[in-house]
Amino acid sequence: MNQEKCAKIFITFAKINPSPTTELLFNSEFELLIAVILSAQATDVSVNKITRTLFEIANTPQKILALGEETLKNKIKSIGLSNSKAKNITKTCEILIKKHHGLVPNTREQLEALPGVGRKTANVILNTAFGQETIAVDTHIFRVSNRTKLAVGRTPLAVEKKLLAIIPKPYLHNAHHWLVLHGRYICTARKPKCSLCPIEKYCEYDKKNWDKVKIKRS
Ligand code: SF4
Questions:
Q1: Pocket of ligand 1 (CB under 6 A)
Q2: Active site includes 5?
């Protein structure tokens, strides 16, 4: 896709939704970090259901550790991977206290050193908690980028790099949220709602060859 068309897509998103944000509920950088760790292979709705009650009793690393891993596991058991998520959150809280004065660090290197935090999670935190121009390529962004031909790539990292290169700077910070929301509600996996799509005239969706694009681990 050429840059002019790409710009038009983001001008359109900005007109429709000038201040997009995550659908995860949070009131602090720490709450966001825990919510994003919990959201791996789970919907934001299911995570919010858990964190609404969890954060009432434990919304700091100290309070999560005071709960204990077993109790934490029980509290998050309604979403997938609760064993490993409880383990990772516990270890992450220990590191935050030991190395970061109980605060969430604001560099990629420090974030990716936390258990349960990979590049995608770090990108969400850097973008949403610290205002950086990062894009976390999840399943929605990967699909939308490839379908529209905004950024064609075989891996999330390849797509991320292309998006960062093509999206005009004024739109970079919000691009992550616009693309996630677009993929979640309009350009859906099975049946994209093309007749309702605000960027339809710029989209280069090639329906016939779409099945050839598969997500790969970066
Ligand atoms: S026109 Fe269809 S395929 Fe293209 S972005 Fe919109 S919903 Fe997705």
A1: 147-148, 186-187, 192-194, 197, 199-200, 203, 205
A2: no
Tokens of 117: 């935090």
Phi, psi angle pair for 129, to nearest 5°: -90, -35
- Catalytic residue status for 138: yes
Report pLDDT digits (tens) over 95-136: 999 999 999 999 999 999 999 999 999 999 999 999 999 999
R_g (Cα) of the chain, nearest Å: 18
Contacts (Cβ under 8 Å, ≥6 apart) of 67: 57, 58, 75
pLDDT in tens, 38-65: 999 899 999 999 999 999 999 999 999 9
| In contact, 110 and 128? CB cutoff 8 Å | no
Is the separation of the CB atoms in 199 and 150 below 8 Å?
no
Longest CA span, the chain: 54
DSSP string, 111-131: HHTSTT--HHHHHHHHHHTT-
As given in the structure block, the two tokens for residue 111 are 């974030």
Within 8 A by CB and 6+ apart from 112, the residues are: 118, 119, 122
Q: Which of 49, 73, 98, 120 is catalytic?
A: 120
AA letter at 83? N
Nearest residue CA, atom 3 of ligand 1? Answer: 205
CB 27 within 8 A of CB 55: yes
